[in-house]
């Protein structure tokens, strides 16, 4: 019995230390109540205090399933990691982060600008921000977007860490590519503490790299999902392309509930909708270039092409 109590206390201490480092909610270990059992203190049940009640300091995405898996939404004063496993997912990763910024901006009374920080070859590989597209999709005017590009990762980390403490910004996006030991647990811990003290989010966008140890309480893995067809009063429009869609996998959260969702971004309402049905039989086979309508992959032919077939 004494050995069990010592082990239980050691586990509790370890859990508290992890929660302190990561800045997550405190945890406690309670013995399971087994009536009439001599081994009632042997079984341990993990309970997270406050996980099921209260959403203060959270930004709901609007998608019920994802918000439930996140415990109410993304934290407003924390480091949030958004991963793209391949370089081609960079657009989806950045788009999802910009959508969250747009959601927070819609609720804010003061429309503060956003700072987008990048390092090295990130923009040449993943693409640079396109102001007209960002305005159209997310309602962020060019004057609300500030961009800082550093030659080295150390420069970008320094800019992001200093910017995280500025009250004149609504959020900070730090975009990096690949895995680097310089962005380790210590570096993410500094970024997370700065965001906690300032009371605003810092979104860490990581492309073409596997998730690494981090102090961020939330980590999402985002990729592009097949777009559904647009719908009218008479039904789906053949050959049309619907709103941007994202596949969002919860890799890390305060509730510890791994789950995957498909979300669609509504440009007009500036909100996410969770897709619960198949988008017209479209499947993602992982091809870099979408296949032709007849399923073939023509190659080796070059010449003039028309976007629309002329009337007969």
What is the element layout, followed by pairings?
Elements: H1 2-22, E1 27-31, E2 44-48, E3 58-59, H2 64-69, E4 74-75, E5 79-84, H3 90-107, E6 114-119, H4 122-126, H5 131-138, E7 145-150, H6 153-163, E8 171-177, H7 185-198, E9 202-207, E10 218-224, E11 231-232, E12 235-236, E13 245-252, E14 259-266, E15 271-274
Parallel strand pairs: 5-9, 5-10, 6-7, 6-8, 8-9
Antiparallel strand pairs: 1-2, 3-4, 10-13, 11-12, 13-14, 14-15
Helix pairs in contact: 6-7
Key terms:
312 residues; alpha/beta; nine-stranded mixed beta sheet; two-stranded antiparallel sheet; 7 helices; 15 strands; 27% helix; globular
Structure notes:
The chain has 312 residues and is of the alpha/beta class. Helix content is 27%, strand content 24%. It is built from seven helices and 15 strands. The protein has helices spanning 2-22, 64-69, 90-107, 122-126, 131-138, 153-163, 185-198; strands at 27-31, 44-48, 58-59, 74-75, 79-84, 114-119, 145-150, 171-177, 202-207, 218-224, 231-232, 235-236, 245-252, 259-266, 271-274. It has a nine-stranded mixed beta sheet. A two-stranded antiparallel ribbon has the order 1-2. Residues 24-54 and 283-306 have low confidence and may be disordered.
